[in-house]
Amino acid sequence: MTDQPHRPAPAPGAPELFTWEFAGDPYPAYAWLREHAPVHRTRLPSGVEAWLVTRYADAKQTLADNRLSKNPAHHAEPAHAKGRTGIPGERKAELMTHLLNIDPPDHTRLRRLVSKAFTPRRVAAFVPRVQELTDHLIDGFAGKGEADLIHEFAFPLPIYAICDLLGVPREDQDDFRDWAGMMIRHQGGPRGGVARSVKKMRGYLADLIHRKREALPDAPAPDEDLLSGLIRASDHGEHLTENEAAAMAFILLFAGFETTVNLIGNGTYALLTHPAQRARLQESLAAHDTALLETGVEELLRYDGPVELATWRFATEPLTIGGQDIAAGDPVLVVLAAADRDPERFADPDVLDLGRRDNQHLGYGHGIHYCLGAPLARLEGQTALATLLTRLPDLRLAADPAELRWRGGLIMRGLRTLPVEFTPVGGNRSAPQT
Length: 434
What we know:
Elements: H1 20-24, H2 27-36, E1 39-43, E2 49-53, H3 56-63, E3 68-69, H4 79-82, H5 106-117, H6 120-124, H7 127-142, E4 146-148, H8 149-154, H9 156-166, H10 173-185, H11 193-215, H12 226-232, E5 234-235, E6 238-239, H13 242-272, H14 275-286, H15 291-304, E7 313-315, E8 319-321, E9 324-326, E10 331-334, H16 336-339, H17 374-391, E11 396-397, E12 419-421
Parallel strand pairs: 2-10
Antiparallel strand pairs: 1-2, 3-7, 4-12, 5-6, 7-10, 8-9, 11-12
């Protein structure tokens, strides 16, 4: 019988985590952990035990530590528990070979290949389409004087945008919206619904990639879609396999849409509950100055960002984080939301300041796993917020903030609904097909 590693007792006085009350405002609990138990072992709602890293310096070190693997095979718990440490359904759907689940050298190879397709130039060329989609969605509710900004705006915008970027035909995009809706509801849908949606999405992507590969022209067109770019990308003659391309397209969809839904939703909510900062941004936009919009989106990412905890890491050997010994095989979760409000790193961290300059937040991670889609998310966030505040200048909450509910879930942080009111405005700006 082997000796079991010593498990420290919970810190005395530790706040209760992962309740519905905690979801509404986790920041006081995270402040307590930063001060009293900055590397804290807890039992997650799934039953898996993991370490939470809450201080900025420790978080940044942990995100870049190559002794922490992204591969769930390094998890010390039995195989059945490993299914509770990733995206529901990805294992059964054979979607594990994406950038969030692998380490160098495989990660280096895949990221290099994907980067050849997902270029800044491709994102920059997408600016007009993002603006067109944004205006079209606002047209859909501008005349009503009220809307749920999550379901009518923040959710469909990134879904249609990423589908367009990938090259999903317009007639199939509503299917993706349905599948994504099931995935984003997490606990709110029917039992097994997320896994079924993942399986359907994977099957569709595999078929679409196969069809695109068969029809791929010798030379790329100027407006070639991202999936075709993934298929075409090569490094010293090495290409992505169809399974790898499907897994990469899936994670771009999964990570690319929900983070942006939450960026737009959380960001709008923060602006509506901080009227002086919102007025400051509206004045800047009216003067056609985008500098405050750019720093403002970075501040919204820091203040109440879309990703609460970084995705899973597993210790491949015994190590120490923030003075705490971690056993080989233990899961480690970096709490980005806590690190980004660390007073040791940010002045007045609980204050929303859209003009904040020294703002090296961890909202999109750090190190080799820094979010590949961050430029696209920033584009969508800036476009969505600027257009909302310009076209609906008297936008206001239509509910008591205490009545709003946040979605349950471990990694992401986002509102279920965001009801708003405004003076109705008429006239359609555009009517693109979605």
